[in-house]
Design a protein that fits this description.
The protein is of the alpha+beta class. It has three domains: about 5-200, Arp2/3 complex 21 kDa subunit ARPC3 (Orthogonal Bundle); about 220-330, Beta-Lactamase; about 355-575, Histidine kinase-like ATPase, C-terminal domain (Heat Shock Protein 90). The protein has helices spanning about 5-25, 40-60, 75-85, 85-100, 110-130, 135-160, 160-220, 225-240, 275-280, 290-295, 330-390, 395-410, 420-440, 465-475, 505-515, 525-540, 565-575; strands at about 65, 70, 245-250, 255-260, 285, 305-310, 315-325, 420, 440-450, 455, 480-490, 495-500, 545-550, 555-560. The chain is elongated.
């Protein structure tokens, strides 16, 4: 046999080995061993076995020449060393090289060939410690080229008799150096392709979970209800490949989307025995037969299921279920995703509880702040009434009636929310007093959409802003000015604008108003700062009040009030407005 014929023969075996390795890495979960999903020790052992076995295949994939074997071991053990480091390279080399020495393949070159394989694996592992990209095909090719030259030298000088060793090297040197060099480079690229594909798949799945978490957060934070469960199930079903998605509480099905919706009905009692088991024991289940799922309906299509408990305050409050059918089976990865989604949903339910507590604390703080506002406004109002007592007693009496209306409503201002029309009634009482005092110096243009009048709004959120415009804006000008109030709304938010053409403010004044500090009733600007704090406490920083002002040209204050969403908010509003 000449070297050219040997190259062709080895190339055929080489193609089969690479194709087999590619299939092995792609159609089984073996490619996941590089992602450290199990313990490092288990990963290392698996890697040693995989690359060691590939090295053995490289031996059997060779040709017997002069009582020796022209082989392709180097490309496997070198790739293993680059991939897993010195321990994997040495381990794979020991398996493949030890097999060459100990198994009855024979040949006078067994010991130097097996030893060279071990050295190649260890050397590749050491080199990998200094590489940024461990699976660099150029490094693999260089190591294989150098390693096979060393291999030939060891065969030449460690395989007596020298004359036979020389004949062997002349025949196998070029084929083995060429094919192992090319093979190591290609093997490294195959692993790169497989792992890039696996990484891309994992990133897509991770993105799906993040998308689901982002889309469901607004629903589950309002609690585990039929509406929130239905919206959550729809979102999960749209992002996963499950045949159906269901959510239950401790007794009933809250939502079911997909196959089986004809008998797994929302609002009805839970049908499956497996769900009751999860609710009772609190442990997730992966089920792979319709019998174990335990649905009594004769036409139930489900053949697999992932049933995972939902927790709140350490207790099981429901389940999240993914179902599979014969055409759309679930696998172990689906089970892991179901557990991850259940953890996310449980976290959102916990956040709902935290949100309720935060709102209760916020309202307690609001009551304290309002106690500072009331004396502030009362002092100004009584001064105004006093000025009319001698000159116009009837007008003073009218203003006292307006003040009594204001104060009567203000006694209940500690509640969470009031309809906008009540807030505007308080504002009208305030303006009646101020216009009586300052006359034509105060003009008001009120532009409110009728559809906004019943919109829930925190009490005393508009009047202090208007008072600020009167006191610090219009009264700074001898001729006074105009305050324009614009309010409009859509299905989600109400927009409020309060504009005056007073003396305006400098940037430093606006920054002082925004400054986060404890409100002191003896300081100026208490009303505006109070409103800013309350809006952020109730609705979050995204609803921060905006102030735009310019010296000598006036001030504009704008803010948004969202629709009430949580059960606690709605109870506070509806319970006080019945």
């Amino acid at each position: 046999m000449n070297p050219e014929t040997l190259i062709i023969t080895l190339a055929e075996r080489f193609g089969l080995i690479v194709a087999g390795a590619f299939l092995l890495l792609t159609i089984t979960p073996i490619h996941r061993i590089g992602f450290r999903q199990s313990s490092p020790r288990t990963n290392t052992i698996l890697q040693i076995l995989i690359f060691g076995i590939c090295g053995i295949l490289g031996t059997y994939g060779g040709n017997f020449v002069f009582q020796s074997v022209a082989n392709l071991r180097a490309m496997a053990v070198i790739t293993g060393g680059l991939f897993g480091g010195p321990l994997v390279g040495l381990g794979a080399g020991l398996i493949a090289g030890g097999h060459r020495i100990l198994i009855d393949i024979g040949g006078f070159s067994a010991i130097p060939c097996g030893t060279a394989t071990m050295i190649e694996g260890l050397a590749a592992g050491i080199v990998s410690l200094h590489l940024t990209n461990k699976m660099d095909w150029r490094a693999a090719a260089g190591l294989a080229f150098g390693g096979e030259i060393l291999h030939m030298i060891m065969v030449l000088y460690l395989s007596p008799p020298y004359e036979e060793a020389l004949q062997l090297v002349k025949l196998i040197a070029m084929p083995m150096i060429v094919l192992n060099t090319f093979g190591a480079a290609l093997f490294a690229q195959v692993i790169n392709v497989v792992f890039r594909h696996g990484t891309k798949q994992d990133s897509v799945k991770a993105q799906h979970i993040l998308d689901i978490a982002n889309l469901t957060v607004s629903h589950l934070r309002s609690g585990l209800t039929m509406d929130s469960a239905q919206e959550t199930a729809k979102i999960i079903y749209a992002h996963l490949t499950a045949a159906a998605v269901a959510i239950t509480d401790n007794v009933n099905v809250l939502a079911h989307v997909g196959a089986g919706a004809d008998h797994h009905l929302p609002g009805k009692k839970i049908r499956t025995e497996s769900t009751w088991k999860v609710l009772t024991e609190g442990e997730p289940l992966f089920l792979e037969s319709s019998k174990i799922i335990g649905c009594a309906h004769p036409g139930c299509p489900f053949t697999s299921a992932a049933v995972v408990p939902l927790h709140k305050n350490g207790e099981v409050v429901g389940t999240l279920k993914l179902y599979g059918t014969r055409k759309n089976q679930l696998d172990q990865l689906s089970f892991e995703m179901a557990k991850g989604l259940a953890n996310l949903c449980s976290t959102q339910l916990e956040l709902e509880e935290i949100q309720i507590k935060e709102q209760m604390l916020s309202h307690a703080e609001i009551r304290r702040l309002q106690a500072q506002i009331n004396p502030h406004f009362l002092f100004n109002s009584l001064n105004t009434v006093t000025s009319f007592c001698r000159t116009n007693p009837d007008r003073a009496r009218e203003l006292l009636l307006e003040l009594s209306k204001y104060m009567r409503k203000n006694l209940d201002s500690s509640r969470g929310y009031v309809p906008l029309h009540e807030e505007l009634a308080q504002l009208q009482s305030y303006l009646a007093i101020e216009q009586a005092r300052f006359g034509e110096r105060i003009k008001v243009d009120l532009n409110v959409e009728e559809t906004c009048l019943d919109w829930p709004i925190p009490p005393l959120i508009i009047q202090p802003l208007v008072e600020n415009s009167v006191k610090h804006g219009l009264m700074g000008r001898e001729e006074g000015g105009t305050i324009t109030i614009k309010i409009h709304c859509d299905n989600e938010e109400m927009d409020v604008s309060i504009i005056d053409d007073g003396i305006g403010m400098a940037r430093e004044q606006i920054e002082a108003i925004y400054a986060k500090k404890k409100i002191d009733s003896r300081e100026k600007g208490i009303g505006v700062r109070n409103c800013i704090q309350r809006l952020e406490q109730i609705y979050g920083p995204q609803y921060k009040m905006a102030i735009a002002s310019e010296k000598g040209k006036g001030t504009e204050i704008t803010f948004r009030v969202p629709k009430l969403r949580t059960a606690v908010q709605m109870q506070e509003f509806t319970g006080k407005t019945r």
